[in-house]
Every structure is written in structure tokens, then in C-alpha cells.
Amino acid sequence: MTVPIIQIASISKQFTSKPVLDQLDWEILPGQVIGLLGRKGAGKSTLLACMLGLQETDGGAVSVFGEPAANLSPQARAKVAYVPHTCDLFEWLSPLQMLDYFKTLYPHWNSAKVEGLLARWGFDKIMRKRPISQLSAVEKQRLSIVRALAHDPQLLVLDEPMSALEPAARRDFLRELFDGFIERGTTIVFSTHVLSDLERVASEVAFLKTGKIALQGGLDELLQSARRVTGPGRLLDRFAVSGELRRSKDLDGITQIVTSAASGELLALAEREPAIRIEHLTLADLFVEVTQ
User: Where is the ABC transporter domain (predicted)?
Assistant: First the structure.
């Protein structure tokens, strides 16, 4: 049996009186590349921070590499990299000074990777010696990514890592992820609002809603099996379709969202009742249906 890299058991978190995470359970296995999706304010950043022990939970337990997330050993912490949504760089240092400092914290440091990324992303000799406070938001985000990738982590956690990057830089970053980490079996968890980016690299997708993981599965499998079934209420009330995720009723009839019904079951239903319509769902469709 494969041992999860991350185990989350019934964690809760609230700010003032607003619950953000509610008895959330989640497991992440070695080598998975998981895209975390949710509406704005759903708690994605909070979940990722709690997952790494960077925010204290109000209950529950989190372990990373078999250790309590809030008290990781130096050996376990050296296997982890995190790119937060808001850059947390040492802005009084230059890029070279900051990278030299972080180099001392890790037993392994890939200097060739650092040099390659800095060169590709336009960090010339002048920019490398300029205070980080004088860099643009895009340059800071690129530098944050360089810092995270430099020690070849086994677990890479990214919170909207490409939000400030232009399309060309996003493609370059995704290529770096695929060539340097995904093919090597690195476990990656990332949140993003750019669904096309997620579809390029993620093998799994998880949807966060009302403080829980509402749905998780293989991306290809979900897109293959997810359907919208619509028809008159008098018909759909009589049929039970397996894998129902959500059901709604209006004046036009009933709409069901199903994520694991057998294709033969749906085809038989449509052939038996021509008034019933069955549609494939895109990732954007599924996002709307799961999170609304």
C-alpha cells in the first residue's frame, strides 16, 4: 500500500466567526500532480498553508512525510518547496544575495538550474545585484519560483504561482515543471484560476467547496465520465443514475450532474427516453457545477 506524502485528517480553520475549512480530509500520494480549484474566497490559500504547517489549524491533524506538519524536521523540510500567492522575498537583499542565503539552508542546491532560469527569465548582471524591492511584481514572482525549484524538492506546493506572469513566461514555467519535475515523479500541489494551465500539467484535480474537498479524481477520468443530464421531472424522478453529484429542479425540468455513471447506463437511458438530454462537461463546466 502506498503511503501518502500528505495526510490531512478532519482539519478546521476559521477567521473571526467565518469557517474556512470544515472537518476537511485529504490524502496526497507520491508522484501525484494535483490542481486545487475553488471559487475566490473558498480557502485554497488557507488550505495550502495549513497543509505545510504555516498556519495553525483549529482542529484536526496534518502530517507531511510522516511528520507533524507544524513541527517538521530539517530533513523533511528540505524536501518541500512552497511558492505563496504573495511573494515573501527578502526585499532588502539582491536576488544573488537571497539565493546565496537559501543555498546554505539545503543539503542539495541545483546551481545549474538556478543559472538557467535566471538567464531565461531576463535576470542580467545588473538586475541580479539590484535590491529585490526595486523589481516588478512579475520579476519577484519569477524569483520566488527560482528559489522554490533550486533545491529539487520532492514536494512542490504552489499557490497561484503564475498569477503575475504573462503567457510566454507561464508556458516556460509549465515546461520547466514538466521537464524537470513531473517526469521525475515530484509530487506537486498547485492552485490556479487558469484552467488551461491546469489541464496542461495536472493528473488529478480537487475541488474545494464550503470547507471540504467536494470532488477529487483523475482529470482525464472525470472529463470522460462527467455528464449533465437534463429532462422532464416526471422522467428523471423515476430513474436513479449512479454517481450523481448534484440535482436541481426548475420550470423546465430536472438537471443532474453525474461524475461516475457508466456510459452504457447513460446511453440506455437516452435511448429509452428521447426527452432526456445528455451532455459532456468541460473542466470549466465541471468547475461551475461543483462549486456553485
Answer: 6-235
